[in-house]
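Supplementary Note 2. Why include the ligand at all?

Several targets in our set were suspected to adopt different conformations when bound, so apo predictions alone were not considered sufficient. For every target with a known small-molecule partner we therefore ran a joint prediction. The input for thymidine-5'-diphosphate is given below.
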Amino acid sequence: MLLSFEGIDGCGKSTQIKLLQNYLKNTGYKSYLFREPGGTEVSEKIRSLLLHESDELDPVSEMLLFSAARSQLIAEKVIPLIKKGEIVILDRFYDSTTAYQGYGRKSVPLDKIQLLNSIASHGIQPDITFYLKIDPLIAQKRTESVEKDRMEKSGLEFFRDVAGGFDELSKSEKRFKTLDATLSVEEIHQKITSILAPHL
Ligand code: TYD
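The joint prediction is reproduced in token form.
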């Protein structure tokens, strides 16, 4: 089973993913977590190009690098685990490319991003996508004190477009489960486990 978590920076994904992993462990399920971009040696190298280098990246190069990191992770780690029937959790997946590079950067038309996403993911799709929805201004306040990476320095207007992109996806994709990220950590966790439980 493939689960993904999405939302803009500061939505609280990492906290919820940790809680979910603990829940799965306590109920007797092993799970594997990967973050995007990252999760393999090559993908982590691409991650540092994307997030930490100060060089300007052309928006199309940015989109292709996120996709290259994804393709490597999916081929090397995710597909073999899915084939064995394991539970894989992805901290971001191709919906981030649609929202950040498509709606945010507007690098190329959305239909082209969709095609690229299906190529980079080797045709696999998440069974459930947990979308932690939050107002970009609230998210910005939450991340104010943390040092920002290259993407996070993109500004409020950019994050409004990205959030709009996730909202559009949540309307068109049945696998999207939208959660109000301003609820308490415990309330959000409860909702996630009650959505997931019937699928286990
Ligand atoms: P990360 O530090 O993992 O952020 P977060 O903890 O919020 O997930 O950095 C990932 C950054 O890269 C984040 O700003 C979102 C961005 N991103 C894209 O722009 N496109 C993508 O396809 C992916 C996977 C991430």
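The chain has one domain: 2-35+77-199. The chain has a mean pLDDT of 96. Comparable summaries for the other entries are listed in the accompanying table.
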